[in-house]
């Protein structure tokens, strides 16, 4: 029976290692690390109309990647000449943004609160149109829509805006915020004015994009709003470069509705598994490691969600229903663009399921609890490393009753080990008799040899869930602890923590009853070495959790072992 207990413990440990290997292979792909992005001047995206949705039944439309809108027969807009083709720059406390007057697309967006890498003071570039293409486009399509044939050139009052010059307003939670509006205007030959208004709010990532159609013509204006994200096959800039290993998670499209909260769509499947559905309160996005860009149509209308590939770029977006603006009237239609870090609380408020782009895998219920615990302790101590230490202590306290029972049984196994050895020498040739005597000893001493598996089995899902928390939570990106650990989401650069973990694992094993079988004993002695090598390239925060867990376990086992030894001596004296 004891032999089966040993095999069960070994099996649990190897299952843990196997599941970690699967997660490691998923996240540490063999792709080469992306070359450091060079600072270049922002240029126009040079977007052609073939990338833009157009009106249905327009015979002149031939591009295969263009989805069809509702038929409209009315006056055709004629573009006016803009005063300047210079990009419009917007600076807030969250962003540096560049908007191309041609089409009104956001062609570059920098996140001021997130650095390019842990060794760089440059902001993280979210959207760009220089070296590679990743832009957020929007406009109006249909027969009257100016984006149907060619991108309109908007007129702008000025080419530079800052949040400091914005008007101060009060939010719903009575917090003073500044709201900056960046207007552009496009006029048709027959008197239709189309205003494209970008609304930025201090302290917030969402950008509201509103198209205001002022119909001063003699006829009815018809069209649809579209919003889309266009990206090429460039590597994920959010992944971490760790030398021979490159960390990365899912890079591709995603969409959600109130009924189907979160759905992934690989870039290669944008045509084969084409997104094509109508939904209200929906969203579309391009997801990368730690960051997400998403279009969220206004809740007032049902949007058509769609995806397509065109000329080596991937496009995912939405179209609004047909808008009719009678002569002499005006109409506003809006959508929200989010391009920033995967902050769960903000994404959850923006759209149902958008927060699930923080993908914690199949252990997401445990992972969410762990993240909430980390966030709670971080709010107290202000350091994610110490938050991991406090979370580990809390987890151990919660599991203390179950683990203590297991450790008491293991301590009794340690006490009766000499008697087990005597029985083996006495009945070694008679395995049936030895098994009977061993079972009788277990029953007499109230020992469960399988209880040694319980602590590891309880820790295994927690350990795996914490791995995903460290990999997916942008809050822990480049988060320092102390001394040489300056990024808890990356491996220990000096491998000190894995070596400490191996030492604590060895001492913990010494407190356990040692296997009587020589082969099992040899395997158990190798386990600390195997796990040390295995964890060399895992996040420092994960290794820190294991070290603290081992230290608490050592103290708990030592105390229980001493109590069991005293109890055993007292029983023997009687």
Describe the overall structure.
With about 575 residues, the chain is of the alpha+beta class. It folds into two domains: about 45-75 and about 85-360, Beta-galactosidase, Chain A, domain 5; about 365-574, no CATH class. Helices cover about 35% and strands about 25% of the residues. The protein contains eleven helices and 23 strands. The chain has a nine-stranded antiparallel beta sheet, with no helix packed on it. Strands 6, 12, 17, 20, 21 and 22 form a six-stranded antiparallel beta sheet that branches. A hairpin with a 5-residue loop joins β10 (about 190-200) and β11 (about 205-215).
Q: What general outline do the C-alpha atoms trace?
A: elongated
Oligomer: single chain
Q: How many whole angstroms does the radius of gyration measure?
A: 31 Å
Number of helices: 11
Question: Could you estimate the helical fraction of the residues in percent?
Answer: 25-40%
Q: Mean of residue pLDDT?
A: 78
- How far do the termini sit from each other? 28 Å
Which structural class is indicated by helix and strand composition?
Answer: alpha+beta
With strands numbered from the N-terminus, the spatial order across the biggest sheet is 8-9-10-11-23-19-18-15-16
Largest sheet: 9 strands, antiparallel
Tell me the CATH topology of the largest domain.
Answer: Beta-galactosidase, Chain A, domain 5
How many distinct domains? 2
Strand proportion: 25-35%
CATH architectural group of the largest domain: Distorted Sandwich
Please give the CATH class of the largest domain: Mainly Beta
Low-confidence stretches: 1-7, 23-41, 56-67, 71-84, 241-247, 569-574
- Per DSSP E runs of 2 or more residues, the count of β-strands stands at 23
């Amino acid at each position: 029976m004891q032999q089966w207990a040993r095999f069960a413990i070994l099996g649990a440990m190897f299952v843990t290692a196997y599941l970690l290997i699967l997660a490691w292979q998923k996240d540490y792909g063999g792709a080469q690390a992306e070359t450091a992005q060079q600072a270049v001047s922002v240029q126009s995206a040079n977007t052609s109309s073939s990338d833009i949705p157009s009106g249905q039944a327009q015979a002149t439309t031939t591009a295969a990647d263009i989805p069809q809108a509702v038929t409209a027969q009315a006056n055709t807009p004629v573009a006016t000449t803009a005063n300047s083709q210079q990009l419009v720059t917007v600076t807030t406390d969250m962003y540096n943004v560049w908007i191309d007057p041609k089409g009104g697309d956001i062609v570059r967006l920098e996140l001021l609160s997130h650095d390019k890498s842990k060794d760089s003071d440059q902001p993280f570039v979210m959207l760009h149109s220089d070296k590679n293409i990743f832009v957020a486009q929007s406009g109006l399509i249909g027969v009257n829509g100016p984006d149907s044939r060619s991108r309109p050139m908007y007129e702008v009052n000025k080419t530079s805006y800052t949040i400091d010059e914005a008007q101060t307003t009060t939010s719903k939670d009575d917090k003073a915020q500044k709201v900056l509006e960046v207007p552009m205007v496009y006029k048709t030959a027959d008197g239709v004015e189309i205003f494209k208004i970008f609304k930025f709010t201090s302290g917030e990532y969402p950008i509201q994009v509103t198209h205001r159609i002022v119909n001063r013509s003699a006829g009815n204006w018809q069209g649809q709003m579209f919003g889309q994200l266009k990206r090429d096959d460039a590597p994920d800039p959010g992944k971490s470069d760790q030398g021979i290993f490159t960390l990365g998670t899912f890079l591709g499209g995603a969409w959600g509705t109130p009924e189907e909260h979160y759905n992934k769509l690989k870039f290669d499947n944008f045509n084969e598994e084409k997104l094509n559905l109508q939904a209200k309160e929906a969203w579309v996005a391009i997801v990368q490691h730690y960051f997400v860009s998403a279009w969220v149509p206004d809740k007032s209308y049902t949007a058509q969600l769609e995806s397509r590939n065109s000329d080596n770029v991937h496009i995912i977006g939405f179209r609004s229903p047909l808008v009719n603006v009678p002569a002499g009237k005006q109409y506003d239609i809006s959508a929200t663009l989010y391009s920033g870090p995967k902050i769960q609380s903000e994404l959850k408020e923006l759209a149902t399921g958008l927060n699930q782009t923080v993908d914690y895998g199949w252990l997401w219920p445990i992972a969410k609890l762990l993240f909430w615990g980390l966030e709670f302790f971080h709010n107290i101590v202000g350091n994610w490393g110490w938050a991991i230490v406090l979370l580990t202590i809390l987890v151990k306290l919660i599991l203390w009753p179950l683990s203590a029972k297991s450790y008491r049984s293991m301590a009794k196994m340690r006490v009766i080990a000499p008697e087990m050895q005597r029985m083996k020498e006495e009945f070694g040739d008679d395995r049936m008799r030895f098994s009977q005597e061993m079972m009788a000893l277990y029953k007499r001493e109230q020992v469960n040899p399988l209880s040694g598996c319980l602590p590891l089995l309880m820790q295994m899902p927690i350990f795996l869930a914490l791995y995903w928390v460290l990999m997916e939570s942008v809050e822990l990106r480049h988060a320092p602890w102390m001394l040489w650990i300056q990024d808890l989401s990356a491996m220990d650069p000096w491998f000190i923590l894995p070596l400490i973990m191996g030492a604590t694992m060895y001492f913990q094993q010494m407190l356990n009853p040692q296997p009587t079988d020589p082969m099992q004993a040899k395997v158990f002695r190798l386990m600390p070495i195997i796990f040390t090598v295995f964890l060399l390239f895992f996040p420092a925060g994960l290794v820190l959790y294991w070290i603290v867990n081992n230290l608490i376990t050592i103290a708990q086992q030592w105390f229980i072992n001493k109590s069991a030894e005293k109890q055993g001596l007292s029983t023997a004296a009687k």
